[in-house]
Design a protein that fits this description.
By secondary structure, the chain is an alpha/beta fold. Strands 2-1-3-4-5-6 form a 6-stranded parallel sheet, with helices on both faces. A 6-stranded parallel sheet has the order 9-8-7-10-11-12, with helices on both faces. Helix 11 links the parallel strand 11 and strand 12. The longest helix is centred in the C-terminal third of the chain and has 19 residues. The radius of gyration is 21 Å and the shape is elongated.
């Protein structure tokens, strides 16, 4: 069998989605996959972006052969179903890695339409086991595996371990706006025993409660952030409320694997994560952070962590971060997918 993928144009590499997709492409190259689209490029122009991807998909459809396994990163908008159908006509199988469910957070399409679209793939890699179960429960009848954490390839190493000997600092990084992160504007009301380092566009110190509790670093590119991060924890929280992760963006944490989790871990930060998040079990199992029901819980939880416990968390973070930096999670998931499809080809099910 020959393993193939289709590269794309990325309008930038500052967004989490583009970083995750380009890292996956790099790991596929290292795993021996062949790009049957155009060479990966970066054009910020909408027109160039559209034309490059369209031409890449057109080229890719001529490069499929019987017995191939084609790997797609989902969503691929209107092209996903088309490419899957062409692949099957040519006798190839399709593996799809889910980055985002358009029917859940953005409501870009109905659940029924998304299930129909995903059912064109022969094997699905969900971002985590909770998402995989959710998709099965709502009717996606396809073999499925899970990624569990996004890999994060960098050329930068984080600074040496910082020892907590005074003020506790918690980092929050991402795209900052009231639609996605309205809780930031209220968070100051429940901050007592720590301060917050903010990284990203859109934060307004003059609009938040208790601005003296925040340090706004503005946008810092990922390599420099990893190289210079001096916080003690990284917060994984979204939505409008400080009491729970609510709203379309907040509740999506119950299914999603945020890319910022891997950014924090690659920066050697233990996590503070909502108890209802799909990744809460990953954090607990690996001993890499603190699980909280609401943001007010953070005060007592961070104060209760002993130096020895924090050292253990950092040691566990280093172990997981090494896997993330090596592309371990995607390599494992894609190898499982290939093994499943190859076994099916050797032992076809009776019709």
């Amino acid at each position: 069998m020959s393993y193939k993928y289709i590269s794309h144009n990325y309008r930038n590499h500052t967004s989490a989605g583009n970083k995750a997709k380009s890292d996956v492409e790099q790991i596929m190259l290292e795993e021996g996959f062949r790009n049957i689209g155009l060479t990966r490029t970066e054009h910020s122009s909408k027109g160039a972006h559209f034309m490059f991807n369209l031409m890449g998909i057109a080229k890719a459809t001529t490069g499929l052969r019987k017995g191939d396994i084609l790997f797609l990163q989902y969503p691929l908008k209107k092209y996903f179903t088309y490419i899957c159908k062409i692949a099957h006509i040519r006798g190839a199988k399709v593996v799809a890695l889910i980055h985002d469910l358009g029917s859940f957070r953005r409501k870009a399409l109905s659940v029924e339409k998304e299930l129909r679209r995903l059912s064109n793939a022969d094997y699905i890699i969900a971002t985590n086991k909770v998402m995989a179960k959710h998709l099965h429960d709502i009717g996606l009848d396809r073999p499925m595996g899970s990624l569990d954490a996004w890999d994060y390839l960098t050329v930068t190493d984080p600074i040496p371990q910082r020892v907590i000997n005074g003020e506790i600092r918690i980092a929050y990084a991402g795209s900052l706006n009231e639609r996605k992160n309205a809780f930031l504007w209220k968070w100051g009301n429940v901050i007592r025993d720590y301060v917050v380092d903010i990284y990203g566009f859109g934060f307004r110190m003059d609009q938040v409660e208790k601005p003296e509790k925040f340090f706004d670093h503005g946008f810092v590119d990922a390599e420099n952030l990893i190289a210079g991060m001096t916080s003690d924890y990284g917060l994984v929280w979204d939505g409008r409320s400080i009491d729970s992760c609510e709203g379309d963006f907040g509740s999506y944490l119950a299914l999603n694997t945020p890319h910022k989790v891997s950014l924090y871990l690659r920066s050697r930060l233990p996590l503070i994560i909502w108890s209802g998040a799909a990744m809460a079990d990953f954090v607990k199992t690996n001993g890499i952070g603190i699980i909280v029901d609401n943001l007010d819980d953070i005060n007592d939880r961070v104060k209760a962590v002993t130096p020895e416990e924090y050292t253990d968390m950092r040691r566990n973070v280093d172990r997981v971060a090494a896997d993330i930096a090596a592309g371990h999670y995607f390599r494992k998931a894609v190898r499982q997918a290939i093994k499943h499809i190859e076994n099916e080809s050797k032992n076809p099910q009776p019709q």
